[in-house]
Amino acid sequence: MSPHLTRSQERILKLLDASDRALSAQDLYLELRQRKQGMGLATVYRALDGLKLAGSIQVRTLASGESLYSSSHEDRHHLTCLHCGNSIELDQCPVHQLETQLRQQHQFKIYYHTLEFFGICTDCQAAGIQVPQG
Ligand SMILES: [Zn+2]
Ligand SMILES: [Zn+2]
């Protein structure tokens, strides 16, 4: 682990590593408070910003505009239902090959990528939610 991390960043990173799902800044704020490691929400955001720039975490933005953070060694993609908000995790990365290719082509140091599919899940379709044709 990088020695340049602040204490807040270390705590947040540890929490994200231990979590089996991506967490919002608000989730992190509440979880840290529960562990008696409370810090202000602004500090949480600042720490997340630093971790993001260092490539230590990755950010996924939901349809609602909320950002979810996770440790960056995860390469996960989802099908997200716009109606109920449920996410189905894909069991493999559809663009893994592409990332390698882009890295070589552009000599770009890629930390991570996001890829997400939005639509209506089978439950919502069964419940009669209108789905556009095609
Ligand atoms: Zn749904
Ligand atoms: Zn991927």
Automatic annotation (TrEMBL):
Gene3D superfamilies found in the cross-reference section: 3.30.1490.190, Winged helix-like DNA-binding domain superfamily/Winged helix DNA-binding domain
Any single biological process term in GO: regulation of secondary metabolite biosynthetic process
InterPro entries in UniProt: FUR, Fur_C, WH-like_DNA-bd_sf, WH_DNA-bd_sf
Cross-referenced Pfam families: FUR (PF01475)
Binding site for Zn(2+): C81, C84, C121, C124
SUPFAM superfamilies in the cross-refs: Winged helix' DNA-binding domain (SSF46785)
Taxonomic superkingdom: Bacteria
Sample GO molecular function, one term: transcription cis-regulatory region binding
Annotated keywords: DNA-binding, Iron, Metal-binding, Repressor, Transcription, Transcription regulation, Zinc
UniProt cofactor(s): Zn(2+); Mn(2+); Fe(2+)
Record text on cofactor binding: Binds 1 zinc ion per subunit.
Binding site for Fe cation: H113
Family: Belongs to the Fur family.
PANTHER family from the UniProt entry: FERRIC UPTAKE REGULATION PROTEIN, ZINC UPTAKE REGULATION PROTEIN
Record protein name field: Fur family transcriptional regulator
Organism per entry: Prochlorothrix hollandica PCC 9006 = CALU 1027
